[in-house]
Amino acid sequence: MGSWGRLFPVLLMGFLLGLHHSTAFWIVNVVFPPNAKARPASNSTPPLIIIPGSLGNQLEAKIDKPTLVHWLCYKKTDHWFPLWIDLNMLMPIGVDCWIDNIRLVYNRTTHRSSNSPGVEVRVPGFGQTSSIEFLDQNKLSGYFHTMVQHLVNAGYVRNETVRGAPYDWRLSPNENTEYLEKLKDLVVEMYEQYQQPVFLLGHSMGCHYVLYFLNHQPQAWKDKYIKGFISLGAPWGGAVKALRILTSGENDGIPMISNIKIREEQRMVATNPWMLPFPNFWPKKHVFISTPTFNYTHQDYQRFFTDIGFQDGWYMWEDTKNLTGDLQPPGVEVWCMYGVGLPTIVTNIYDSEFPNGDPVDFIYADGDDTVDSFSMGLCKLWEGMQNYPVHVTEYRGLAHLDMVYHEKVLDQIQNILEGKSETPREVETRF
Ligand SMILES: *[C@@H]1O[C@H](CO)[C@@H](O)[C@H](O)[C@H]1NC(C)=O
Ligand SMILES: *[C@@H]1O[C@H](CO)[C@@H](O)[C@H](O)[C@H]1NC(C)=O
Ligand SMILES: *[C@@H]1O[C@H](CO)[C@@H](O)[C@H](O)[C@H]1NC(C)=O
Ligand SMILES: *[C@@H]1O[C@H](CO)[C@@H](O)[C@H](O)[C@H]1NC(C)=O
């Protein structure tokens, strides 16, 4: 906030230039997305609700803090200010203020997370598209903007037929019941307004939110209100990357913040333990983290959390492992779309600096550079497990974040919304 105001333009340029295209999962980093060219507008625009991934919508905060981590941090604000993305996180002291504002405090007795003392957090723009289109108020870090613009060119209307359902992505759905009720109300509202069932579209972790939501609705309700679920790049079996993030942090190419610094924030976010690779699906012997003294499989999560010095993480994992951990079918028609053909880390190898240094080596498998295709392909299990079809499309050469921008994906989404039934099994996206 405030005191570094004049430095912002300079920093912003550093921020923009430093971001590598498509390295991120938790941090959205495509700043200048390609232009969306939709086919001519059609009059078939069934209502659509977009559920973003982790870090995928704006958050705002208001503070009146009892103590400060640094005297330069703001102690009290009268207004709501951007917490995500807050460019102060790029400053040497600003990052400490930011972490102290965005962190959650976990209580092992109640199994609940709360905001840092003296911090209120709210999610702006529920039911609108603004807070998922761009993550910052200067409209520089575009996320769903390209897709929404594509839909608008195809006849959709922002805040009306296409809406966003942003949420506090620091929390897992068991701690976000109010959000899930709002989502349900939004579905019903759009259904009644347009006299048609509604499509849900999720990206990455947002797909787990959608699955959790659908798993908790009666089948008759889904039959009536939901037209289908479009899932983009869902880590259905969890993400190996979550383990690395919790171990040694991951700045995802943001300059000026070290991995070990951002780890402080990443360990406070309950959704990171939730996304650990799901034991029901991964082979018992698969080593996710290898160190000179121990090889960690999913049977060793308790020891893992002890060894990295983050015991709360074990409780957070216990609280969240059953939320979507058995992949109950959603009970609606599904289009499961994800990238393949890129080397993706499935084992992180550390030297003796574990857990305070970066991995020194990796083992790769096929995936979208962030999540492996084994995990994303688990939606195939639903074929035959529910009364509705499951369509799976693999995009060869497409990176995790590019799922929300690539014209071939946007085209396919338009086809689905227009009711064109043909769904390719594989699409080549490399030139
Ligand atoms: C956790 O919650 C319990 C019950 O509300 C409370 O008594 C306890 O003080 C809390 N623990 C911490 C560390 O805040
Ligand atoms: C959608 O809602 C937001 C927030 O109220 C507003 O700023 C924006 O102009 C609206 N967009 C349209 C196209 O109505
Ligand atoms: C971990 O697994 C690797 C590969 O199988 C093996 O070479 C190494 O000895 C194991 N390390 C420990 C500490 O068990
Ligand atoms: C999670 O699921 C397992 C296996 O289905 C069950 O034994 C366990 O009690 C569940 N735990 C919670 C906290 O619901």
UniProtKB/TrEMBL annotation:
InterPro entries on file: AB_hydrolase_fold, LACT/PDAT_acylTrfase
SUPFAM superfamilies in UniProt: alpha/beta-Hydrolases
Gene Ontology terms describing biological process: lipid metabolic process
Pfam families per the UniProt record, alphabetical: LCAT
Signal sequence, renumbered to the chain: 1-24
Gene Ontology MF annotations: O-acyltransferase activity
UniProt keyword terms in alphabetical order: Signal
Signal as UniProt keyword: yes
Family: Belongs to the AB hydrolase superfamily. Lipase family.
Name of the protein this chain belongs to: Phosphatidylcholine-sterol acyltransferase
